[in-house]
Amino acid sequence: MAAYYRRGRATAALTACLSALALAGCASNDATAPAPAAAPSDAGAKTDGGTVLAGQPDVNGDGKVVIGVLSPGDINDKGYYQSFVDTAQEFATAQGWTIIKRGSVNTSEALNAARALCQQKVDMVALGASELRDAIPASEEPVCAKTAWYVPSSDNIPQTPKIVLSTDEADQSMLAAGYAAGLIMKDAGHTKAGFVTGPEADFTTGAAAAFKAGIKLVVPDGTVVTTYTGDLNDSAKAKEATQAQISQGVKVIYPYLGGATDASAELANSKKVLTLTPGTDRCASTKPTFDISVLFSPGDYFRAALEDFSEAKLQMGVEKVWTLGVDPFPTVKICKPTPEQKEKLDTFIADVGSKKIDTKAEVKRLGS
């Protein structure tokens, strides 16, 4: 799905428990009561940055490693939310770990869903996006005493000693996405782009503004048509918005969506309109095809955390801020760039990383 780090970028859909391992491990919506209090865990080793829980990755010491994942969105959306659980599943399988995963968790159910995972003796509770922040108080409860917590951060989620926060600056990837689109538009002589997304909220309006600013850095007279469908997963609404934008002469469309991404992109493909991805690398995709991959996938960030967890190095009580042009992710790539386009985009990304380009200032200057 799309995400602007909140990067929780979607609203919850139908409650689903979608793991092949589900019969052994799906958390039920009816699980409301905390489990009996666990014995206090060893606080673990203190470091300069935070605390490494004792016994990591088998934090609760039961001889196995179980990762519990809660997502507010569709974990089969082929994008933002699915990347998170797919990464967890891939890494866990390689390690011989077990994954318990649940998608489309409503924010009002987050706390009880987290408690239910802890009742199943998970070693880590991982939230797929910050919409589920209401689950965090469970990290302080006896039921979750021997559990690590991974939380994608936005909206100024308070740091506590019990959780690790993972965040990025969304202005960076979205400005770079617009810049990449602008490079293609300039070479093709296009001046009009489109942005199709779901609810009109801070994370979508901010993303649209940054995308527009990035385009205008390359195409000063460029314009962006923005449509808010109200739903990140409704394919019919996404197609209607996409068709309306194409009818207005849009030549590049960013389907900043969740489950509706492919419906919008396929329609754009049929009209030879260029497209971008909302979070994952889909340059190899053939149906639909994409021209630019904007990579801010929570799965990429989560994998790094799981690697640290497997090596007993994941620290609670700290925040990791991922930076464009410094870290491997976030980043943006043109799927089939000309040498000049690649060089210009690489330079732009490096300039963001070195702070030569102030992304917030550029969005404020050009994104309104």
From TrEMBL:
InterPro entries: BMP_lipoprotein, Peripla_BP_I, PnrA-like. Residues 35-55 are annotated as: Disordered. The keyword Signal applies. The keyword Signal applies. Residues 1-24 form the signal peptide. It is found in: Cell membrane. Residues 64-271 form the ABC transporter substrate-binding protein PnrA-like domain. This is ABC transporter substrate-binding protein PnrA-like domain-containing protein. It comes from Streptosporangium longisporum. The lineage of its organism: Bacteria, Bacillati, Actinomycetota, Actinomycetes, Streptosporangiales.
